[in-house]
Structures are given as structure tokens and as C-alpha cells.
């Protein structure tokens, strides 16, 4: 039997790739418009100031994070105990219902702040289950040697959809406000059908099943004891938590750069465009050496570009900076995702992916809250400068405190384990 030379030669992986594209397209469109609609409702219907409306954007991130924080251990356990296709399909179904409700309430002009916060919390609940299940599927349907390329290609799906979702959603929203949410619902239905067409995926278990609570604790303890995993996961958590400028993009779009919802869609799409370009390059020319140091340099560069974005008052320049932010972030994400998946045994991948997903969500949603609070105190520009500088400081501290990250030379699983243990 001829071994595949590319993950795209594997039918299950192609369906997985399309499912990921559809789901991310839908959810990115929803999240961007949720933020814009909340900011618009707060400013226009409730008469809030820019500072107070910015603070509510931060609270919207918190509303999405709370279910993630509470349910992440359960979601990771579900991905390790049940068919991962069913877990992902269930979560996409919940998100599809959220999209339908957004379409209906937008069409009926019935949106208010409590409804938007409730739908944001429901979206957060769906995402907490889909992310660990989807992340843990890829290593089960491609050979280990192809996993870094599979992760790069999966990132292309993610980032391309992250470009198209906000851009298409913003353009449609400017004309028919309810329609992009209806489109999201249809794409989530398609993602559900595609992921269910993949062969059954259930984690391998070499020993006896432990009780659910014991399994949850075991996954947390494993990450805590493996300093390499802990360093990878927490680097992303604290750096992006501080440098998360995306929560304030509605402020820049409406009141600083004056480009409206169409401009907001392009601004949200710009980082994903940079990331997708790098992911495409990495799918053909994956990094093979000094991967740990390259990850650290990429995070520091992300912080520097964040500071540059804060001071830009030219829309095209701001877009260019956002593209650069996405490009360097993709380098960091690609390396970290590959290292975490290759370092983790299959029977723990769901729980470790859930913990990693919690860190990513914490950095995004709590980062939005941090940005909103900082903007209320420092203004939007000051908040973004503070976050970018914080990301650079975090990188320096992690490079010193987790030397295992600097020592990671390659993606070879055995070499990786040997290098980080020395």
C-alpha cells in the first residue's frame, strides 16, 4: 500500500478540512458582528459614551469566557471518552441555533444588550466542546509524519475562513443585517454533515477507564507536570491576553478610523489574511529547525506590531499592520500546535487540547475584557499600546523561566522529548 505524501490525499482529512472551514467561516462572522452590534446598540440605543460602550465590549468577551472556563474539563473528557465526530457535531448544532436566533432577532429589530450577552454565552458554550474534539481528530486520521503539514493545512482552513467570514459578513451586514447570520447557520449545518461523514474517531485507551472526575484531574495534572506543555500553553495565554487588540476594533472602525462595518470586516479579516499566507507557505515548507526560538521571536514580534497598530491613523496602514500581526501569530500558532499535539499521548489529547483551548479562549475572551477595561481607563490607543508592551515582556519572562521552549529544535517526537528533558 502506497503511503500518502500529503494529508489532502486522505479522504477523511479532506472532509475534516472542509468542515473546519465552514464552521470557522460561520463563527468568525458571528463573533465580529456580535461585537459590532453590541457596540452600535450601546452607542445608538442606550446613549453610552465611547468609554462605556468599550467597557461593554470587554464584558461581552467575559460572557463568552465564563462557560469556557466552567465546561472545559467536561469538554476535554468528552473528546477522550466519546466519538469525537459526535462531540463536534453536537457543538456545531448549538452554534447553528445561536446563528438562527441572531438572524431572527436582527431581522425583527429586537436586539438589546441582554439578548446579545445571552447569545454570546451560548456561543461560548458551543465553542468549548467543538475545539478539543476537532483538534484531537487530526492526529487520528493522518500518519504522525504528516501531522505538521496537516496542522498547517488545517490552519489554512481556519485562517482563510477567518478572512472570508468577517469580510463577507461585514459587506452583507451593511445591506441586509440579518442575512450574514442566516448564512452562518447554513454553513454550520454543512460543517455538521461533513464531520459526521468522517470515519468514527474515539481515543485509544491502553489501560482501564478511570472515573470521569479522576480523568479530568489526570489531564490537568499531566499538563502541570510537563513543563514543556505548560510553557507552550501559558505563553499564548498571557501574551495574547495582553495584546488582544481585536476587541477594540469596533472602536477603531467607528470612532477612530471612521470606516464603519465594512471597514471592520476588512480589519478583522486582515490578520487572518497574513496568517493564511504563512500557513500556505508552511504547508509546503514547514519549519524544521530551532522551532522553539522561532516561536518566542514570533510572539515578541506580535507585541511590537500591536503597538504600531495603536498609533496608526491611516486605514490602509492599519490593515497592513494587522496583516503582519496575523503572519507572525501564525508562526507561533503553527509551532505551538504541532509541539503540543506531538508531545501528548493520544489518550490524553482531548483533555490537553481542551486545556490548550481554554488558554486560547482565555487569551481571546479575557483579553477582550482586559482591553475593554484598559480602554475605559487609558483610551483605545493607550490600551492597545499597554497590551503590546505586555506581550513583549511576557515573551522575555517565558524565555527565561521555561528554557525547555528555547531547547526545542525540531518536530520529531522522540527528538523533541529528548531535547526538552535535558
UniProtKB/TrEMBL annotation:
InterPro entries: MFS_dom, MFS_trans_sf, TM_effector. Its main location: membrane. It is a multi-pass membrane protein. GO terms for cellular component: plasma membrane. It is found in: Cell membrane. The keyword RNA-binding does not apply. GO terms for molecular function: transmembrane transporter activity. Residues 15-406 form the Major facilitator superfamily (MFS) profile domain. The chain crosses the membrane at residues 21-39, 54-75, 178-198, 228-253, 265-284, 291-311, 373-401. Pfam families: MFS_3. It comes from the Bacteria. Keywords: Cell membrane, Membrane, Transmembrane, Transmembrane helix, Transport. This is Arabinose efflux permease family protein. It comes from Erythrobacter dokdonensis DSW-74.
Amino acid at each position: 500500500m502506497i503511503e500518502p505524501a500529503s494529508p489532502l490525499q486522505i479522504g477523511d482529512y479532506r472532509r475534516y478540512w472542509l468542515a473546519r472551514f465552514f464552521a470557522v467561516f460561520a463563527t468568525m462572522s458571528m463573533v465580529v458582528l456580535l461585537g459590532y452590534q453590541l457596540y452600535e446598540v450601546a452607542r445608538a440605543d442606550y446613549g453610552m459614551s465611547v468609554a462605556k460602550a468599550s467597557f461593554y465590549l470587554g464584558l461581552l468577551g467575559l460572557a463568552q469566557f465564563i462557560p469556557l472556563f466552567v465546561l472545559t474539563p467536561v469538554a476535554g473528557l468528552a473528546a477522550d471518552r466519546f466519538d469525537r465526530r459526535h462531540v463536534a457535531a453536537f457543538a456545531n448544532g448549538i452554534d447553528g441555533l445561536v446563528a438562527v436566533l441572531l438572524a431572527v432577532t436582527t431581522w425583527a429589530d429586537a436586539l438589546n444588550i441582554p439578548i446579545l450577552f445571552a447569545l454570546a454565552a451560548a456561543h461560548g458554550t458551543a465553542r468549548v466542546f467543538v475545539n478539543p474534539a476537532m483538534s484531537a481528530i487530526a492526529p487520528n486520521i493522518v500518519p504522525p509524519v504528516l501531522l505538521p503539514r496537516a496542522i498547517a493545512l488545517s490552519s489554512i482552513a481556519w485562517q482563510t475562513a477567518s478572512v472570508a467570514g468577517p469580510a463577507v459578513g461585514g459587506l452583507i451586514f451593511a445591506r441586509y443585517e440579518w442575512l450574514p447570520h442566516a448564512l452562518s447557520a447554513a454553513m454550520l449545518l454543512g460543517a455538521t454533515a461533513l464531520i459526521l461523514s468522517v470515519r468514527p474517531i474515539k481515543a485509544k485507551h491502553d489501560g482501564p477507564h478511570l472515573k470521569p472526575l479522576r480523568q479530568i484531574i489526570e489531564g490537568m495534572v499531566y499538563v502541570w507536570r510537563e513543563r514543556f506543555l505548560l510553557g507552550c500553553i501559558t505563553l499564548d495565554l498571557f501574551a495574547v491576553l495582553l495584546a488582544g487588540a481585536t476587541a477594540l476594533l469596533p472602536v477603531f472602525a467607528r470612532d477612530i478610523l471612521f470606516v464603519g462595518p465594512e471597514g471592520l470586516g476588512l480589519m478583522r479579516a486582515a490578520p487572518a489574511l497574513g496568517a493564511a499566507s504563512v500557513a500556505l507557505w508552511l504547508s509546503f515548507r514547514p519549519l524544521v529547525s530551532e522551532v522553539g526560538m522561532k516561536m518566542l521571536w514570533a510572539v515578541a514580534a506580535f507585541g511590537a506590531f500591536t503597538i504600531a497598530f495603536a498609533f496608526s491613523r491611516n486605514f490602509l496602514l492599519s490593515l497592513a499592520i494587522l496583516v503582519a500581526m496575523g503572519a507572525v501569530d501564525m508562526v507561533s500558532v503553527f509551532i505551538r500546535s504541532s509541539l503540543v499535539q506531538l508531545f501528548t499521548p493520544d489518550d490524553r489529547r482531548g483533555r490537553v487540547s481542551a486545556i490548550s483551548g481554554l488558554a486560547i479562549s482565555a487569551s481571546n475572551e479575557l483579553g477582550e475584557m482586559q482591553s475593554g477595561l484598559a480602554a475605559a481607563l487609558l483610551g483605545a490607543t493607550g490600551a492597545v499600546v499597554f497590551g503590546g508592551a505586555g506581550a513583549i515582556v511576557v515573551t522575555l519572562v517565558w524565555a527565561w523561566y521555561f528554557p525547555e521552549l528555547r531547547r526545542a529544535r525540531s518536530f520529531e517526537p522522540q527528538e523533541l522529548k529528548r531535547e526538552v528533558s535535558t
